[in-house]
Amino acid sequence: MDNRTAIIKQPDNISFFNDVYKLQKEYQEALILDNSNPDFIWIGEHQLCYTLGRGSNYDNLLFSLNDAKYDVFKIDRGGEVTCHMPGQLVTYLVLDLKNFNKDLNWYLRKIEDIIIKILGAFNIDCHSRKGFTGVWIGNKKIASIGIGCKRWITINGFSINIDCELENFNKIVPCGIENCLMANMIDYNKNLNIQEVKRIVKKTIEEEFNFDFISK
Amino acid sequence: MSHEIFMPALSSTMTEGKIVEWLKNPGDKVERGESVLVVESDKADMDVESFQDGYLAAVLMPAGSTAPVGETIGLIVENEDEIASVQEENKGNQPEVSTSDQLELVSNKTEEKLVAQHEIVEKETKEVVLKSEKPVPSFNIDQINAATSNVSSRIIASPRAKKLASQIGVDLAKVHGSGPHGRIQADDVLKAKGQPVSIPWIGEGGSPASIPGSNLGVESKPETSGNSFGNPGETVQFNTLQKAVNKNMESSLDVPCFRVGYSINSDKLDNFYKKVKQNGVTMTALLVKAVAKILKKHPQVNSSFSENGISYPENINIAVAVAMEDGGLITPVLKEPCNTDLFELSRNWKDLVKRSRSKQLEPDEYSTGTFTLSNLGMFGVDRFDAILPPGTGAILAIASSKPTVVANSDGSIAVKKIMQVNLTADHRVIYGADGASFLKDLAYLIENEPEKLVS
Fold first, then answer.
1. Which residues of A are catalytic?
2. Chain A closest-CA separation from residue B31 CA (Å)
3. ipTM
4. pLDDT at residue B126 above 90?
5. Beta strands of B146-187 (E only): which ranges?
6. Coil, strand or helix: which one is B203?
7. What angle do helix axes B432-448 and B283-297 make, rounded to 10 degrees?
8. How far apart are CA B104 and CA A159, in angstroms?
9. Which residues of chain B are within 8 Å of residue A104 when distances are taken between CB atoms?
């Protein structure tokens, strides 16, 4: 397969969720209109916020939507409620699956494999669980996945907890799984930092999808 | 001309998908390429687009429901004036779409994506759905011509038909489908088994089960198999509607309810019903009308509990529980029956039932009841009690009207049709005496003056 050009954006500062979401939507729209447009990858961190998929059950949000303390966004992805915050690395992939495999199950498993490889680079042993999309260390969830798709062009992606305040997950039922325990990468490898993980995420995606990255 | 929207295959291993959300409502204009609904499988969701400019005419599977890949889930028409006729045809989820449309639709798909998607659907369904090339046995030629000019040899059957087939041991390959493109419906499976086609299990019907000529003779068909949403050994997830009902039922546990019953002689009501039935009057409309008239005299029984005290609704709106074929129930509401004549009320009720079946009710058509009726009379039950729906004060359970030997006040013995009704009420707002006097007046009206129900 020929390499495809993809635009990569990886800001160092913490990004406001809605700005990045809009940016993803723009790249998705552009690809829908003309499939010669580039794919788009975003790797970064958000302020504390909660996001829901279009089919999410609001009962998994354990605080009132009117509670102004928390930002809540309803977005175009599958799955239940999740939480983003500094110390968690979020990766969005706006990809045209027509160039890879028009199969969302394949894509979800591919993302799981990518995450397992990323953690493997830090000598962290983790695995996927059948029926529970995401990546796990024992019974603790280390990475969450949620994607949306329109004309086989994806949006959203995955988040890996690196060194974040896991207490923020207590205000929700993460992914709709009761008593779901969360984990941080730092607990399994004291020597890593988020910049290092970011570098590996970029490298792994580049290799797995045969991308030529153009930084933006 | 109408075009079908199918449940797409989001992956080669997907057998069914969940409809997360309809982005368009029936009647809405849609443009080619515009997202019409969202389908979810695992943690991925996908926008499903319209293949052409037109109007969304019908939603055959509601948000929250799950449909097999390849199943028709909605219909799009090209012209606005076709909406009504397509909706009419599809009441009861039995779309009659000509097969040539399907072929045209496929050949019209210029976009690579759509064609490819269709190929996946084909491949997928061939793997999952039961397969056989065997010719359909004894059916008349017209029927075969009408529906088996299908695109491929795959067998498409409704989920209920598949379950029913496995439960009663029918080989779907030998069943002739009467649905669109030869899709096999539950009734086709029953026919193939030589069983009488069951009425949709829906709470519409005459309470008195023994009205001659009634097409609801469930009593006489004890061999009709009961409802089941799964196979032995399976645990089947609740559908959205069932979850909603569960929530409502559970909230009744916080309400201190009592029950009070009454045996009503329905001879006069039955005679009156026989007279007006030919004018399209339904038993449900008669009962709703009777209850509403008496509620007007007994506003306490129409009231409900609220944090601020006893809440008296401005209107009398009667909700009637209707069981849905695929699980759960819904309570279509007949608004202000006192201000509606019996014939219009009957027409309204028929319309509500039809639209309940095709899941096209607006929220205010099923959520605004101030009092609920639950009628199991058509099953021949002699008595039952109902669970109080949240936000209301009382519900009336109506059983079958049965010939019963009764003692008259003068000591003589007679056979009369007796119908037992049972009121469940929230004792915080409705007391025993309120319920009892309501029932007494209801019985008086039904036993003595049913003709007053006309207006």
1. 175
2. 15
3. 0.83
4. no
5. none
6. coil
7. 130
8. 44
9. 10-11, 14, 41-42, 44, 46
